[in-house]
Amino acid sequence: MIAHQTTFVAIGHFSDPAVITSCVTLLLALVLFIRGTNGGLLISMLVGTGLAYLLGAAHAPEKQASGHVFTGYESLFLGMDWSGIVSLVFWIAVFLLLLIVVFENIGLVASQTMMAGRPERFKSSLRALSIANIAAGLFGSSPVVAAAESNAGIAAGGRSGLTSLVAGLLFGATFLFLPLLSYIPDSAIAPILIVIGGLMVQNVREMDLGDLTELFPSFLIMVMIPFTYSIVDGMAFGFITYPIVKLAVGKGKEVPPALYGIAGLFVANFILQAVL
């Protein structure tokens, strides 16, 4: 897909090597995955990378300046600054960051636990992410969000905590291979994410599509996430619409009180975005 002035996105031109690479990689990934080939997604990405360089869709990255990846980190470790705690800007930033972290994690963890067939792990997964986010603040790193790439491990058959542990160790090992990873073009990565997205859509079958008060909020979430390029904003449309349509048909008691509060938080978020 490419940017378009009128329709926002449009299909790329097939004279573009990157488009050809993406299509071939996607078809290969689908075939290997559906056939149950071990490591099919990794094989597809490697083939797509080779094809991209062969067709001229990718070029070797410029040599980056040498230096340790942790240079300057000592100033971030336990470097919390509470001087602005009494200011409105401080709490607005905390509020917006809270929405992003909480609801991105809810969306991703829900899809992953359902995909793995272990919905009972949802709460424990969120507890682990809560502890990880506290640690992230202490260590001076960015907030922790469940990785959508974890679905690839689930799709490969991973069902236990060992899968997450191995994935975490491999993510950590990427620090040693950052120069090599920069050689992989987006045209070889995007098709893999499309396959993972298709797996996440399987949870649609759990919806009660016969109830319009359930259908439309769910539909808004599915379409607004890609349209807004934000999981949080996309979820906001569904969470705000859900209690409204329930109240409209006299089913307001079916909405848990917490969801009314969440809808109010999302409305407040949009108001803050409009004011600031």
Kindly state the number of beta strands.
2
Oligomer: single chain
Strand content: under 5%
How would you sum up the global shape?
globular
CA-atom Rg in angstroms? 21 Å
Helix content: 55-70%
Number of alpha- plus pi-helical segments:
11
Distance between the termini: 32 Å
- Could you name the ranges where pLDDT drops below 50 across 5 or more consecutive residues? none
Characterize the biggest β-sheet. 2 strands, antiparallel
Strand order of the largest sheet: 1-2
Mean pLDDT: 80
Classify the secondary structure makeup into a structural class.
mainly alpha
What letter string, H or E per element, gives the SSE order? EEHHHHHHHHHHH
Quickly describe the structure.
By secondary structure, the protein is mainly α.
Question: Can you describe what's shown?
Answer:
With 276 residues, the protein is mainly α. It has a domain of 70 residues. 62% of the residues lie in helices and 2% in strands. It is built from eleven helices and two strands; from the N terminus they run E-E-H-H-H-H-H-H-H-H-H-H-H. A two-stranded antiparallel sheet has the order 1-2. Strand 1 and strand 2 form a beta hairpin. Helix 1 crosses helix 8 and helix 2 packs antiparallel against helix 8. The chain is globular and about 60 Å long. The model has no long low-confidence stretch (mean pLDDT 80).
